[in-house]
Amino acid sequence: MSLYRNTVWFLKGLQEYTKGGYESAARSFVEADLEVSVSGRSFIITGANSGIGKAAACEIAKRGGTVHLVCRNEDRANEAKKDVVEQSKNENVHVHLVDMSNPRKVWEFANGFSQNHNLHVLINNAGCMVNQRELTEDDLEKNFATNTLGTYILTTALIPSLKKSENPRVITVSSGGMLVQKLNVEDLQFEKGSFEGTMAYAQNKRQQVIMTEQWAAQHKDIHFSCMHPGWADTPAVRSSMPDFYAKMKNKLRTEAQGADTVVWLAISETASRQPSGLFFQDRKAVSTHLPLASSRSSPDEDQKLMSKLEELAVKFKC
Q1: Where are the annotated coiled coils located (predicted)?
Q2: Which of 6, 26, 42, 139 is the most buried (most CB within 10 A)?
Q3: What contacts 269, CB < 8 A, 6 or more positions away?
């Protein structure tokens, strides 16, 4: 089944996830959707010092938004802030240093932010793909700690702040790679069998889709969505997937093309009228499963994921 999923997914990707796929989809985009001012609205973007996060930050700042860049590396974060301010002519760009793989630091940041700032839109973009199984100082597998637990804690901790705002939204940058994975709630940290970074990442991205669906059902007054940016030419792709990058570099999307649906979900009125909890690709809601792929989890498994994440999150709460 995994061979079937991988083959169908790759063929789909060649048609839809490339630069050509974006250009084809963009013919039906409504330009007016992004012709808006978001002055007075506050946005958090994690992993915003490069790639899709930085591209999204630029577009939002150009439209007047107050942008909070959540980054791990201080020098790169400050460089990104300088670029965003220069490109947008918007000084309301702020840096917050947080390692998303450290759950205590994520809680600490979220609690401090809530006390000092308002928040309209959270964009969960930070991610990592570590190709060898590596544990954090908290004995958490690093991909899971960053992509899944960090996203869960940050979102959960900021929900009360979001609920105080008008038209609040949460966008999580997932990946079409999740289509090759069925949720495995019994081995969240890849302790069994051999470890493969790309499959661990895809499993985390499946978990993000399920978290989005669950949050949407629980919190009706916040608009939740997740999305696939396509195959984009970003520093993360170059460093984490060098073989894929070498083969596909001439077909990859630009960072701005990868960020387009993030921005659309974050600021457009059209996006906010879509049902909450959906998975988007090129401004359209798409299926979270490949045909005949047997990748659907049960409601009990989905709930078990949320319960396990809550149990872990509470353990690290400040």
Answers
A1: none
A2: 42
A3: 33, 36
CATH number of residue 122's parent domain: 3.40.50.720
| Residue-by-residue DSSP string for the chain | -HHHHHHHHHHHHHHHTSHHHHHHHHTT--GGGG----TT-EEEEES-SSHHHHHHHHHHHHTT-EEEEEES-HHHHHHHHHHHHHHH----EEEEE--TT-HHHHHHHHHHHHHH---SEEEE------SS--B-TTS-BHHIIIIIIHHHHHHHHHHHHHHTSSS-EEEEE--GGGGG----TT-TT--SS---HHHHHHHHHHHHHHHHHHHHHH-TTSEEEEEE--SB--HHHHHH-HHHHHHHTTTPBPHHHHHHHHHHHHH-HHHHTSPTTEEEETTEE--SS-TT---PPPHHHHHHHHHHHHHHHHHT--
Is 17 annotated in the active site? no
CA-wise closest residue to 96 among 73, 119, 127, 121: 73
Please tell me the pTM assigned to this model.
Answer: 0.96
Which structural domain range is residue 229 located in?
3-315
Q: Could you tell me the pLDDT band of residue 3, with boundaries at 50, 70 and 90? A: confident
- Inform me whether the pLDDT recorded for 1 exceeds 70: no
Is the pLDDT at 22 greater than 60, yes or no? yes
Q: What are 297's two structure tokens?
A: 């989890």
Per the listing, tokens 């220069």 go with 86
| Average pLDDT value over all residues in the chain | 96
Six-digit token pair at 128? 């990592």
| Count of structural domains, the chain | 1
User: Which one is catalytic: 17, 22, 152, 201?
Assistant: 201
For the chain, give the percent of residues with pLDDT over 70: 100
pLDDT in tens, 94-145: 999 999 999 999 999 999 999 999 999 999 999 999 999 999 999 999 999 9
